[in-house]
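Folded chain entry —
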Amino acid sequence: MDYLRLSRITDSIDRGYRLITESRFVSLFTKAQSRVMDIFNSIVEIPMMSFLHADNEELQRILNPFNNESRFGLLEGAIIHSSIYAPGERQESLQEFYSKTPGWWAAYDFRRVSQFGEKARSFQEGKLCTFWIDELTGNDKDELTRLGTLKFISNLEHRASYDFPGIEKLAEQGFVELKTYEDAYAHAGLGSQYSSSLGLLELSKKPVYAVTPKGNGMIFLINEGGEKTPKADCAKKFAFQDR
């Protein structure tokens, strides 16, 4: 598909999107508007995205509007690094998680289960991926990107031009910032619960990247084509949490 044809298609989709979102009748009913958008997505967006990303199953999963969790990246406050210390399965210890694949990152999303349910993936690994959205360009790093604004990005040219940035670029754009483990856990409401564990492992003042309010839902970890780390091999050290 050449660029001119893609541009014409996206223009038509944008017009359809505006007709729906600007409808006075539909805007009176938020739920009705959401349902109409789901139908619009199923008719137009899924086939288009499947075509554009047919060679990448991970991106198809992210772009699927019917998979509520996968459409959103790491939530505000999530920590990212080459290796991270995060609560274990039973929340009784801190474990070190890392990826065996060079160039991949590890992340722990403190809020994912509470936001998306028990089956949500708190620990993730893979290549950093994002979609640059013009509407967020001038926002401050402390300005929250609401998940509702990410349910449908009307300009498909944005979605077709995804990027695999380095962590430095994400920091430059205000999507992540460096914090200490102590501050990251305090922000997640777990400071007192794990303070002794962080101290025992000498992690309290160790730096780690954390997703900013601006980066909320915008950073994905794509694990296409790499070696997924067995969970048993991820844990190298642990310390019991405070009682």
Remarks:
- The first strand starts at residue 79 and ends at 81.
- Residues 66-240 form one domain.
- The chain is about 35% helix and 15% strand.
